[in-house]
Structure formats: C-alpha cells, structure tokens
Design a protein that fits this description.
By secondary structure, this protein is mainly β. It contains two helices and 13 strands; from the N terminus they run αββββββββββαβββ. The longest helix has 6 residues. The two termini are 28 Å apart.
Length: 236
C-alpha cells in the first residue's frame, strides 16, 4: 500500500490492526485478473474509544485493480471514497471538502530462478492521489524479493526496499514545525523476512529506517521494528 492511499480517509484504510467490514470479488484466468473491494471507510479495532464502526456513516472506500500475472506481474488500480473528505486548506476555506481518490500502477518480474529454485524478483510501484485530501501527493516503492534463498528453507522469503512519499504543499504549510518548512518527502528503507517456522505458523520480522519523518529534517530519524505472526488452520 502506497503512502498516498495509506494516509487517506477518516483514519486510514482498513489494514492491520485497524480493520473494517469489507467485500471483495476476484475474477481471473490463466494470465489475467480483475478484482475489486468495497470497504467501510472508517477502520477500527476492539479497544478503540469508538470501537469498530459498522454503521457506514463515514462512507465507503472502493478499490479496483486489473492486471497480468504469471512469473511477472503488471497491474493498474484506482481507489475512491464515496463521501467527501476534508481538504488540507491552509490558504482557503477550512471547511472545504473534496472527493478523495487516486490511481496506482505496479510491476514485478522474476529475473533469476523458477518456482522450484532460488528466485530473484525486482518490484516497483507508484501512485498519485487527488493531492488535497491526504498528506501525500503521491509515492513510490521499489525493491528486491529473494525466494528460497536457503535451500533448506523453501518457504522463506527475504525482501529489501525503499519507499518515498511526496507531501502536498498544503499539508507542508499546515504542519510546519516552529516555523521550519517541511521537506517535500519522507523516505523509508525496509528489510523483512518471512518464513514458516512450524506447520501453519509463519513469522515475519520487519525493520524500517525512516529518513525525514513527515518531511521534518530536524526530527530524529527513527528505526521501527515489527513482527507479524500468521496462523493457517487446515491441511495444505
């Protein structure tokens, strides 16, 4: 998920740990696919002050994506909210609202290996938003994924990447700290490893180094460490 989408909506799209009711459909052939989702625009989780919203008062987030996927993948997608969102309007009407929307494209291609041996896959994604309802005008992500890097660990994948989000002019004006203008972008360098450590149990540690967080050159560049655990029930 790119910066231009992840910072949209009332409190960000549905993603771990704040999720929302959703419906998704996917139609695919041997090489092509079309998928779409309708998601409650306001995400939440048990323990939040307002709890999980099932009313739909904040509207819906609609996403659609189509692409070609074999050993390579090329896809384009678009997203849009059904209710207008507040505009970052430092120099105009503070109550102004606009439709929040954006588009993106992604490509990945295996350049070494196969489905049964070591495989190296570069990937690239870029997207843009409407530029007035989210802090980010757009963003891009690029990196490398290594599958079956260790023969004895066939389910292990390792990936490194760089991501950058470009901040909108209005947001930079609003969020200036101590009269220090924010930079035009923040950048993240990331490394992650995913492996099935036991039948049905996959662990994924992740390390991120954030450069100029929120575009603030005076802020300390943080290191973010996370761990995701996935449990699959049932036989393969």
């Amino acid at each position: 998920m790119g910066s231009e989408l992840s910072a949209s909506g009332p409190n960000g799209p549905s993603t771990f740990p704040s999720t929302a009711l959703a419906a998704r459909v996917k139609v695919s052939s041997a090489s092509y696919y079309l998928q779409g989702a309708v998601i409650n625009a306001e995400a939440g989780t048990i323990g939040d002050t307002r709890g999980i919203d099932v009313s739909g008062r904040a509207g819906l987030l609609v996403i659609a994506e189509m692409g070609y996927a074999t050993t390579s993948k090329v896809a384009v997608g678009a997203w849009r909210y059904t209710k207008k969102q507040p505009v970052f309007a430092a120099r105009s009407d503070p109550g102004l609202e606009r439709v929040s929307q954006g588009i993106y494209a992604l490509v990945e291609h295996s350049i070494i290996g196969s489905d049964t041996t070591f495989r190296l896959t570069p990937f690239l994604r870029a997207g843009v938003s409407d530029g007035v309802t989210t802090p980010f005008q757009g963003g891009w992500q690029a990196g490398l994924r290594f599958d079956r890097l260790i023969p004895s660990r066939p389910d292990a994948s390792f990936a490194v990447g760089v991501a950058s989000g470009r901040l909108t002019d209005e947001y930079r004006h609003n969020a200036s700290v101590d009269d220090v203008a924010l930079l035009s972008a923040e950048t993240i360098i990331e490394a992650t490893l995913s492996d099935e450590v036991a039948p049905g149990i996959t662990l994924q540690p992740d390390v991120q180094y954030v450069i100029n967080p929120d575009g603030n050159s005076r802020a300390r560049d943080p290191i973010v460490i996370g761990l995701r655990c996935s449990i699959a029930i049932g036989s393969k």
